[in-house]
Amino acid sequence: MSDVAISTRGLRKTYRTLRGRKVVAVQGLDLEVPAGGVHGFLGPNGSGKTTSIRMLLGLVRADAGTMTVFDQPVPAKLPEVVGRIGAIVESPKFFPAFTGRKNLELLAEAIGAPRTRVGEVLEQTSLGERGNDRFRSYSLGMKQRLAIAATLLKEPDLLIFDEPTNGLDPAGIREIRETMRGLGEQGKTVLVSSHILAEVEQVADTVSIIGHGRLLASGTVAEVIGGGTAPTVKVAVDNHEAATRILTAAGMTVRADGNYLLVEGAPDPADVTRRLAHQELYVSELVPVRADLESVFLELTEGEGL
Amino acid sequence: MIRLTKVELRRLLARRLTAAGLVGLFLITILLLVATYFEARPLSAAEQLQAQQQYEMAHKDWVDHSAENLRLCEADWAKQPDPKPKLEEMCTYPEPRPEDFGKPPTIFAEIMPELLQGSSYFLAFAAFLIGASFFGAEFSSGAIGNWLTFEPRRLRVYGSKLLAAATGFVPIAAVVLASILLGTFVIVTRLGDSSNTTGKVWGDLTAIGGRAVLTTALAAALGCIVGLLLRHTAAAIGVVMAYLVLAEGVFAAFLEKAQPWLIKLNFDAFVRHDAQYYVTECKTGADGSYLCDYVQKTLSFEHGAWYLAIFTVVLVLLGGWVFHRRDVN
Question: In chain A, which among 188-217 make CB contacts under 8 A with chain B?
């Protein structure tokens, strides 16, 4: 089996608005999602995340480009791999007048899964007691859990979650995060699209960042964070002017930040204290400022004018 | 495909609109039978007496005045300019008969074809409505997107929905029509006249019923397609109502000769095995006068059958093409 779960090359999709204007949703997207683990798919609203996911699932036709899922070209061979894919695209959509159980029974019957599996996945997602209530009476969190239950009917190798925590309360968000993490640890591939970057940073092993329908960065979370910004330290020192002069002379970039100085380009935080101490300037506080996904994301997307 | 069709059938039968539609059909069936009962019910003694009195008065008037009326009429006829109408058309005074007064007996073989045809209208409408909602609701709720992530072969999905809607209505239509047929027979046997219900009459009625079942199944499938094309049940119903009012009502009234190309007349021709319609034919006579006649014409069963078949095939292909190509957002 290949170590790539999803691959797209030159994927493109344009829409026509009601007034006939063409809008490019995805333009030449090259995406690679490694098999196993959680992959974050990040981008601002309107950057083409959902459209890309819809194209992968055969819901939307691509104008150009190629896609593979588990080495099978899609949508041509989608029927052959769809049994290995579980997906929730945007908010969960079921028949509102049917119970959660009825909705799952219909889906199970459609894919030939045994009916006993419905009870199992309802229990797995803590919906056992509410399974006989109508879908329209469910809270958003319960709807999301039902959608996860539906994906589990297939026992999939690849799970695609599009904005899974939208509208959820903190407990719901945590639950979804743990579910995704757990699936990733089981060796399944989880592709999660989100713009809640702190969430993704906590669960994702790898990420791809897109903007204007193009890939901007991709790799492990550490690679993307490290490649995006220089190491920074926050320094508290009495004489800002002298300290700035000394550190700038050493090739570092210094900016004032209230009572602190933000120093970029120091190979090691110890370098900062050593150079200042040599000039009898003593550091009272030094905090390494760790770059996070959010700052990288903002840096990349602002650079694209997004 | 068979598995998917079974799932869709289960979904169709589990829907509340289907249940409401079945209750509606049951109530309409009961109402039709009640109406038949009142139609077939013989006159009361008081009504019979009144009819007898009216007959006697009319007969006395005929005895007293018919000869004189005939003479006066012939005189008028003689004064008519040429071309004269025929004398017997203008001056006929037949003797009143007792059966001309009061209510004639209800004859099963005469009323049943009309009743089956009328029933086929409401069955087709109910099937269309439920079919449109069956598919349209999937688009308006967004559930179709979820469904396609489980079964991405769209033509299978499309075929299974159409088949489920059509086959789901076969037993429903059969039960409703059989209830009306047998219920009417029992009522008319007790209150009217079913003595001349021969084997051929039963055969013809069964054939009409069978074709009504078929049109109901087609209406359910076509409802699905219109629901798919418009993505909303209300829009589908709106289109049908607009068609009935504008095409079958206004357009057909202004352009009578277009009737053979409208749905309703072809539907009638198929269900009833030939259907009559009327057109106004006008011509200028040799003397320069402009005369118009209301002429009865017949639309053949074959025309109706081909029309419905072609209409259905075109719509099924169009729906399949749209569903296969359309982005699901």
Answer: none
What's the gap in Å between the CA of B227 and the closest CA on chain A? 16
The tens digit of pLDDT for each residue in A65-120 reads 999 999 999 888 999 888 889 888 877 888 888 999 999 999 998 888 888 889 88
- Label the pairing between strands A189-194 and A37-42: parallel
Q: How far is A216 from chain B (nearest CA, A)?
A: 25
Strand order in the sheet with A260-264: A253-257, A260-264, A232-236, A285-289
Q: β-pairing, A158-162 with A85-88?
A: parallel
* Separation in Å, CA of A236 to nearest CA in chain B: 53
Q: Determine how many CB atoms are found less than 10 A away from the CB of residue B31.
A: 10
**Delimiting residues of CATH 3.40.50.300 domain(s) in chain A:** 4-227
Q: Which of B143, B152, B329 has its CB closest to that of A82?
A: B152
In a 10 Å sphere around its CB, with 0-12 CB exposed, 13-18 middle and 19+ buried, how is residue B191 labelled?
middle
Q: Domain spanning A230-290 has what CATH number? A: 3.30.70.1510
Q: Beta A214-220 vs A253-257: how paired, if at all? A: unpaired
Per-residue tokens: B22: 């079945």
Which pLDDT value is given to residue A291?
62
Kindly tell me the burial class for residue B224, based on how many C-beta atoms sit within 10 Å of its own C-beta (0-12, 13-18, 19 or more).
buried
Q: What's the Rg (C-alpha) of chain B?
A: 27
Q: Which residue has the tokens 């109502």?
A: B241
DSSP B122-191: HHHHHHHHHHHHHHHHHHHHSHHHHHHTT---HHHHHHHHHHHHHHHHHHHHHHHHHHHHHHHHHHHHHH
Interface subset of A 35-64, CB within 8 angstroms of B:
54, 57-61
Higher pLDDT, B37 or A221: B37
H or E element: which one contains B312?
Answer: helix B301-325
| Subunit contact A61:B327, Cβ cutoff 8 A | yes
Question: Using CA atoms, how far apart are residues A167 and A279, in angstroms rounded to an integer?
Answer: 54
Dihedral sign (CA A241, A246, A248, A253): negative
SS3 B79: helix
CATH 3.30.70.1510 domain position(s) in chain A: 230-290
Measured in residues, chain A has a length of 306
Q: Which of A124, A121, A119 is nearest to A178 (CA)?
A: A124
Contacts of B153 in chain A (CB under 8 A): 79
CB A300 within 8 A of CB A214: no
Residues with Cβ within 8 Å of A172's Cβ and at least 6 positions away in sequence, in order, are A140, A141, A144, A165
Q: In this predicted model, what pLDDT tens digit does every residue of B110-149 receive, in sequence order?
A: 889 999 999 999 999 999 999 999 888 888 888 888 889 8
Distance from A169 to chain B by nearest Cα, in Å? 24
Q: How far apart are CA B178 and CA A160, in angstroms?
A: 51
**Which of A107, A99, A26, A106 shows the shortest CA–CA distance to A67?**
A26
Q: B14, A98: Cβ pair inside 8 Å?
A: yes
Q: Which residues of A touch B138 (CB under 8 A)?
A: 95
- Residue A112: which of B3, B145, B149 has the nearest Cβ? B3
Q: What CATH number was assigned to the domain covering residues A4-227?
A: 3.40.50.300
Token duo for residue B216: 């109901």
